[in-house]
Amino acid sequence: MIKVGITGGIGSGKSTVCRLFAACGAPVYDSDTQAKRLMEEDGPLRRRLAARFGEEIYAGGRLNRKLLAGRVFSDPAELSALNALVHPAVMEDFERWCGRQSGADYVVLESAILFEAGLEGYVDRTIAVTAPIDVRIARTCLRDGASAEEVRRRIAVQLDEEELRRRADYTLVNINLGELEYEVARLDKLLRDENRKHSA
C-alpha cells in the first residue's frame, strides 16, 4: 500500500482534491480534523498539553481552543511547542489508521503543513495542490468571510508555491474542475498500477 501526502496553501483546494481521490475509492485521512479529535480524546496527549499550556485549557473537561490559540498563534515558540506535542500523536494515529485500510492500493494523508512539519517522511509520494494567488484569495474570502488583506497575510507565512512544487513528487493545478478530475483520475491509475507492480 502506497501512502500519499497531499498538501497546498490556503485556498488551493486540497479538500476538493481529497474528495476527488475519495470518489476514486482512496481512503483519506484528514490530519487537521484528526488532530482536533485527538486533542479532545487522547488521554496522554491531553495530559501533555495541560502540563505545557496550563490545566485551564481543559477547564470544564473540553479543550478551550480560543484560549489555546491565543497563547500559541502570537508566539512562534509556543506554536512550535504545540506542534511538537500534537504532530507525533497525529502520525501515530495515522499509522494505526493505515493498518486498518487493508486492501487499499493507496491511502491519502491530507495535511496543510506536510513539508513544514516534516511529515513527508511518513509517506511514499507527495502531491502539491496549487492555484493562482488571486483565485486562492477569492476562494478563501468567500469561504471564511475574511478580507483579501487578511488572506494575503495568511498566505505570506505559508510555504510558497514554487517551493511546494519543487519538493512534491506531483503537482495538481486547481483552476478548472474538469481538468482537475482528469488529472486526479490519471494519478489514481498511476498509483494503483505502481502498488500492484510493487506487490507482484
UniProtKB/TrEMBL annotation:
- Keyword set includes Aminoacyl-tRNA synthetase: no
Q: Name one GO molecular function term.
A: ATP binding
For this protein, what reaction is catalysed?
A: 3'-dephospho-CoA + ATP = ADP + CoA + H(+)
Top EC class, one word? transferase
Q: Cellular component GO terms, alphabetically?
A: cytoplasm
Per its UniProt entry, which superkingdom is the organism in?
A: Bacteria
One of the protein's GO biological processes:
coenzyme A biosynthetic process
Q: What is its EC number?
A: 2.7.1.24
Endpoints of the signal sequence: none
InterPro entries named among the record's database cross-references: Depp_CoAkinase (IPR001977), P-loop_NTPase (IPR027417)
Q: What is its main location?
A: cytoplasm
Give the pathway listed in the UniProt entry for this protein: Cofactor biosynthesis; coenzyme A biosynthesis; CoA from (R)-pantothenate: step 5/5
Q: State where ATP binds.
A: G11, S12, G13, K14, S15, T16
What subcellular compartments does it reside in?
Cytoplasm
Q: Which UniProt keywords apply?
A: ATP-binding, Coenzyme A biosynthesis, Cytoplasm, Kinase, Nucleotide-binding, Transferase
> Which Pfam families does its entry note?
CoaE
The protein's job, in short, is:
Catalyzes the phosphorylation of the 3'-hydroxyl group of dephosphocoenzyme A to form coenzyme A.
Q: Which HAMAP family match?
A: Dephospho_CoA_kinase (MF_00376)
PANTHER family annotated for this entry?
A: BIFUNCTIONAL COENZYME A SYNTHASE-RELATED, DEPHOSPHO-COA KINASE-RELATED
Family listed: Belongs to the CoaE family.
Q: What is this protein called?
A: Dephospho-CoA kinase
What organism is the protein native to?
Alistipes putredinis DSM 17216
